[in-house]
Amino acid sequence: MDDSKIQILSEQVINKIAAGEVIDRPSSVVKELVENSLDAQADEITIILKDGGKALIQVIDNGVGMTEQDAIMSFQRHATSKIRDFRDVERVMSLGFRGEALASIAAVSRVEMKTVPRQQIEGTQINLEAGIVSNIGSTGGVCGTSVAVKNIFFNTPARRKFLRATTTEYRHILSVLSRFTMAHPEIEFTLIHEDNQVYHLKKAELRHRIGEVLGKHVGDSLMPIAEENAIFKVAGYLGNYDVVRKSRGEQYFFVNSRFIVDRTLSAAVISGYGELLPKGRFPIYILFFDIDPERIDVNVHPTKSEIKFADQHMLFSLVRGSVKRALLSDQIVPELQQENLPRSSKAARFRAPLLDDIKGYDKRQIALDFDAAASALYSSPEERSITQTSASAMTSSAEKTTPRSTADGMMLWQLHNKYIVSQIKSGFVIIDQHAAHERITYETVKVRFREKKAPSQQLLFPVTLELSSEDHALLLEILTLLEKIGFILKGFGGRTIIVEGIPAGMRIRQEEKILLDILDEYKLESDAKIDMQERVAKSVACRASIMSGDRLTTEEMNSLIDQLFACETPYFCPHGRPTMITMSMEEIDGRFERT
Ligand code: ADP
Ligand code: MG
User: Is the CB of residue 254 less than 8 Å from the CB of residue 291?
Assistant: First the structure.
């Protein structure tokens, strides 16, 4: 009799547990299946989805296919054709082969594989339920493999419950596919969701493919980069200053053909763009690095895409240098939206910091730059909440310093097209015109969310926008909110959107940029539990407001002040910065030593 408490787990249980590690949502199935198709030398890959991948994920390729024996083997744990002997292990591990993807997928879904090996007309069909083979038969057709994964997590209800809304899961899949489609412009990709063709990407040059995936405006703003040094070879594209974004979403690094996320590399690229990158903005880039595998340590955890480099600081410096040189060699003068500098001085400012940067490799300086850049880029949520707290602490002390009223006839001056200065009874007040208008717009937007129909302003010339599929999916998610504010947006097939109207009474000049900004803001917070309306309101407020640098007439200043004091919280902008500071006569007298 077996009374031991310790039991050897069955193969199915092991697979089910392991599946949790490899497969955490539909997008990881897509990643594994497409990777297998690429490994099988396919040059046409079709992805079919239903219900954001929750009901069906099917990947069809025209690769080498499998014999019946291989097809059966492929679902065994640790079955891989990619490691033959011990020497292969290191090479292959760095590419992430573990021979467990199919076994893991099959353990938590219903799978149907059809595969026809090259130069054959007959192939094999295998069906599995929860990892157990339920049918093996034959099938005909063209050479290649189709794997259909149905009802993911049907047998692990706890995990099924964790799946998010269809749109969210779909968006994760789109982002995984963006990486593959850009890494492989030589491969034809077709995506079908809910029986509609989302895209059909023909073989193309990389630049063209990027434009198709990220949108035409990105494709048109790319600057090539190609360099080689002792450590790496880098090739790809950098987006120019016209396509900087508010989130780091569209930053793609591929190291030895693998998509990775790496702080050092992204800090280096951003630092390469230099000071002219507007604050809080991130460049778009798609960079392919070839690095000697000896110098890197790939984290082979199946769902992670991180990498460790032998010499982070050296890598940082070299990457920054390459980016600077690529930007410098390009003749495009950046159009900085928020500056009204004459063209020539803009160009001078653009070039000066670049020139003195390429002056060699000072390790200490680079270490400093690196730390500064990294900390600027990755301030922790705690740090951010400290800023928030001190801002709210200031709110209460500010209540005491309320200027009296904005009675008509008061004198107003605009200081450097940035601040409004006015005499008040107790002294004077300085108002930050942008922060003040941000507050006004923010409260207006919040009111519009609650109303039935917001006033719109028809555009004389509707603006046509081609969005990336990810952005397009996002836009659909927040479309109702945007319409509530007063945007009139029309679909135009595929990912093209026509902006026909914008919110009335708001200061909106760059319809395209505003939409992208709103999408970016939303992306930054989409997984956090932050109110979606709040995010949309903040980003609209930030972009649809008077900017610092805008010249205002006296009437405009008057109306700004009136509206500001009609706000619920006039003293702070939605981000917590003060909208105004005051100085009392006593304070001024004191400074002049008039006691
Ligand atoms: P790995 O890719 O790590 O080897 P998988 O479980 O993903 O492990 O796949 C197991 C094996 O099945 C692969 O090594 C390959 O030989 C075979 N295979 C999987 N998908 C395909 C495909 N689409 N075309 C041809 N062979 C495939
Ligand atoms: Mg695989």
Answer: no
Strand-pairing partners, residue 129, are 110, 132
Of 531, 460, 466, nearest in space to 493 by CA = 466
3-state secondary structure of 585: helix
Q: Is the pTM of this model over 0.85?
A: no
Alpha helix positions (H), 417-467: 433-450
Tell me the CB-side half-sphere exposure of residue 486, using CA atoms within 13 A.
23
Indicate which ligand has the atom closest to the C-alpha of 40: 1
Distance CA 62, CA 228 (A): 34
Q: Distance (Å, rounded) from C-alpha 249 to C-alpha 215?
A: 14
Q: How far is the CA of 304 from the centre of ligand 2 (A)?
A: 15
Q: What pLDDT digit, counting tens, does each position of 213-268 carry?
A: 988 888 888 889 998 888 889 999 998 877 777 666 688 999 888 888 888 888 89
Q: Give the position, in ligand 1's atom list, of the atom nearest the Cα of 65.
A: 25
How far from chain centre, in Å, is Cα 260? Answer: 14
pLDDT digits (tens, 9 = 90+) for 116-133: 999 898 999 999 999 999
CB 316 within 8 A of CB 264: yes
| Cβ 116 vs Cβ 140: under 8 Å | yes
Q: For ligand 1, pick from 72, 80, 124, 180 the residue to mutate: most ligand atoms within 8 Å of CB.
A: 80
Euclidean distance between CA atoms 108 and 105, whole angstroms: 6
Alpha carbon distance 44, 74 (integer Å): 21
Phi and psi torsions of 133, nearest 5° = -70, 125
What is the distance between the alpha carbons of residues 290 and 456, in angstroms, rounded to a whole number?
Answer: 51
Q: Which domains does the chain have, with CATH numbers?
A: 11-203 (3.30.565.10), 208-332 (3.30.230.10), 432-580 (3.30.1370.100)
310 within 8 A of 296, measured Cβ to Cβ: yes
Find the 9 Cα to ligand 2 centroid distance in Å: 24
Residue 501 forms beta bridges with which residues? Answer: 458, 488
Mean pLDDT lowest among 6-10, 90-94, 340-344, 541-545: 340-344
Is 72 near ligand 1, meaning CB less than 6 Å away? no
Encode 78-111: b = buried (16+ Cβ within 10 Å), e = exposed.
Answer: eebeebeeeeeeeebebbbbbbbbbbbbbbbbbb
Q: Is the CB of 97 under 6 A from ligand 1?
A: yes
Cα–Cα distance measured from residue 188 to residue 45, given in angstroms and rounded to the nearest whole number: 6
- C-alpha span between 413 and 397 (Å, rounded): 26
Closest CA to 19 of 115, 130, 124: 130
What would the two tokens of residue 335 be? 């159009």
pLDDT digit string (tens) for 31-83? 999 999 998 999 999 999 999 999 999 999 999 999 999 999 999 877 666 66
Amino acid identity of residue 272, one-letter, is G
Q: Which among 513, 523, 458, 466 has a CA at the least distance from the CA of 486?
A: 458
Within 10 Å of residue 519's Cβ, how many Cβ atoms?
27
Lowest mean pLDDT among 71-75, 501-505, 546-550: 501-505
With a 6 A CB cut-off, is 102 part of the ligand 1 pocket? yes
